[in-house]
Design goal:
globular, six-stranded antiparallel beta barrel, five-stranded parallel sheet, alpha/beta, 595 residues
């Protein structure tokens, strides 16, 4: 049975008996039930299960009832608490002072009872005690008998709960490093203490010989191998071979130890084994491999690949793509944050994005900025529409989620990406039909393999995000909301061929604001903190900012409208004129979530 992280609802009440408390019981519990209903009907865990809430057994009018509620929540895996009240209450006696939960308070905006006064008072209490809390207070006055949740309040409750649930799902899970860091990409390095202190994650390290051992000893589900191999050969059509006609040097030809016609067999076994390492497989225990059957309790992982593996064995591009995609040979499934080149930092961006949305994350090289002038010079055509100010070429060395094709359509025929549990058989087929698998370029990948090859043929809202670690500061996050652009063939075909034409391409136009890094597209590219970035469908920059504040990670750049930003109330105590400086100082002062 899965012990899901839950939102604890704390109904706070004026503790004065003799008429006051009794008159508020029904209203206070109505607020608690409405909040729980809102959360459970709108939010999901990563496995698609509706989010769960726990409501205090009683209203909380003082310290004894607050302690009883804390005891109740201690056995329910409550990761965050939402205190709700329609009235004045005794702040120091009723507030949630546990260091182990993320906190928010919703005060009813009504004139009959001063809920706003309680919210203000308890926010001051939280600030004095060094316990950040989110303040939720409706813009417009409601009547006391109105038990509906205003739209602006609902938005904040859901944003808080969505992000808190993401925090809870990461805690006590593992990031599995399959191999080391690819080609010395220092900005990809897994710093175990950062993962532990900021995300509650355990870093695990698996030497690549473990994969070869399992292939050699056939430690995988043989029935699933047959199913997966048949599905791959039926649905994963091969594209062009970039190696055709080339006279390759001996150092390359002698390095191909798996015959080209056996690549798919090797890749299929490799994919099953990687999945088993991450999640375990009870079938292995039946085969006598009890330790291997347990898996590594992973929530995220990455594969080194280049060069110690790919210099003589088929690459992992298929595996990396299918792990992150919202389906495989068993049908629709939960997408996993799985990093190319074991870029652990980019994988954390993928993980945050997919936990917030339930959608497949994209892994990309942030490869090239194409200015309007450069595009016109090279192609003879002008960029228009969303792309008119220039585009960033997002292209990975062969692996990203197939959902990024944009082949899934909404009712109006627009390209979208769906929560994985909403994928249909047609959606899956459309993504597969939009992708071919080109044989890897032997000059880069001597061991061969196949790379996912597609182009995002849709204009979709997407958010690009990156997690970086900076010496002297610690972890930071970058966010850029924008759109994928379906460039005309006469432009795409020319530009795409200037890189490796066997890799998947997404043309990205960030939304410009005229401020900071978002004065033009060039500045977004120039100020990006690494060579990789992750994307997710939709504009979820505001949610990423809220999540970052919960984890105490400052945001270096973003183009999210100020009115959508929701951080703990005490952030304003660090300055209201410069929100970014206040964010940095608050995160530094409070320190990581798991100190």
């Amino acid at each position: 049975m899965i012990d899901y992280p839950k939102i604890g609802i704390r109904p706070i009440i004026d503790g004065r008996w003799g008429g006051v408390r009794e008159s508020l019981e029904a209203k206070t519990m109505a607020m608690a039930n409405a909040a729980a209903k809102l959360i459970s009907e709108n939010l999901h865990y990563a496995d698609s299960t509706p989010a769960q809430c726990v409501i205090s057994n009683t209203t909380i009018g003082g310290g004894a009832e607050a302690a009883a509620c804390a005891e109740q929540f201690s056995s329910e895996n409550v990761v965050a608490t939402l205190s709700v009240t329609p009235c004045w209450c005794y702040g120091m006696e009723t507030f949630d002072m546990s260091p182990n939960t993320i906190k928010a308070v919703w005060g009813f905006n009504g004139t009959e009872k001063p809920g706003a006064v309680y919210v203000a008072a308890v926010m001051a209490a939280h600030a004095q005690r060094g316990i950040p809390a989110f303040s939720i207070y409706g813009h417009d006055v409601q009547d006391l008998n109105d038990n509906s949740i205003p739209e602006d309040v609902a938005e904040k409750i859901l944003k808080f709960a969505r992000c808190a649930i993401a925090v809870g799902q990461m805690k006590n899970k593992a990031y599995v490093n399959l191999g080391g860091v690819s080609m010395g990409i220092a900005g990809s390095y897994c710093e175990a203490k950062i993962f532990q202190k900021y995300f509650g994650l355990r870093a695990e390290f698996v030497d690549l010989t473990e994969i070869l051992r399992r292939i050699t000893l056939e430690i995988y589900d043989h029935d699933e191998y047959e199913k997966a191999y048949k599905w791959i050969r039926t649905n994963c059509k091969e594209g062009f071979d970039v190696n055709a006609g080339k006279k390759l040097p001996e150092v390359i030809t002698r390095s191909k130890v798996v015959a080209p016609d056996k690549d798919w067999e090797f890749i299929t076994k490799f994919s099953l084994i990687v999945k088993d390492i991450c999640f375990g497989n009870s079938k292995l225990a039946e085969m006598g491999w009890k330790e291997e059957a347990l898996g590594r309790n992973a929530i995220a992982a990455g594969f080194q690949g280049q060069r110690m593996w790919t210099d003589w064995l088929p690459n992992a591009d298929f595996t990396e793509s299918i792990m992150a995609t919202s389906f495989d040979w068993n049908g629709k499934k939960r997408p996993m944050a799985f990093a190319t080149e074991n870029d652990t930092c980019n994988c954390m961006a993928m993980l945050m994005a997919t936990l917030l949305t339930g959608k497949a994350p994209g892994f990309h090289d942030v490869r090239t900025y194409w200015s309007p002038d450069a595009v016109e010079r090279v192609t003879g055509h002008k960029l228009t529409g969303r792309a008119e100010n220039g585009v960033i070429h997002l292209i990975n060395s062969g692996a990203t989620a197939l959902d990024c094709t944009g082949a899934v359509k909404d009712a109006n025929g627009n390209g979208i990406e769906k929560e994985w549990w909403n994928m249909t058989d047609k959606d899956i087929k459309d993504c597969l039909d939009a992708t071919d698998w080109c044989r890897a370029n032997y000059e880069y990948f001597r061991g061969g393999g196949f790379s996912a090859h597609f182009r995002t043929k849709a204009e979709m809202p997407i958010t690009m995000v990156r997690f970086n670690v900076v010496d002297g500061i610690g972890p930071v996050i970058q966010i850029a909301e924008g759109y994928s652009c379906n460039l005309p063939d006469e432009i795409h075909n020319v530009l795409d061929k200037r890189t490796d034409p066997t890799w998947p391409t997404t043309w990205f136009a960030p939304r410009l604001t005229g401020k900071g890094a978002f004065t033009d597209v060039y500045n977004v590219m120039a100020k990006w903190g690494a060579n990789h970035g992750a994307t997710i469908h939709g504009h979820v920059g505001a949610e990423l900012i809220t999540l970052a504040s919960m984890l105490r990670i400052p945001v270096t750049m973003h183009n999210v409208p100020e009115e959508k930003i929701f951080r703990p109330h005490s952030w304003s105590a660090f300055g209201v004129e410069d929100a970014q400086a206040a964010d940095y100082k608050a995160c530094e002062t409070y320190g990581p979530l798991y100190k």
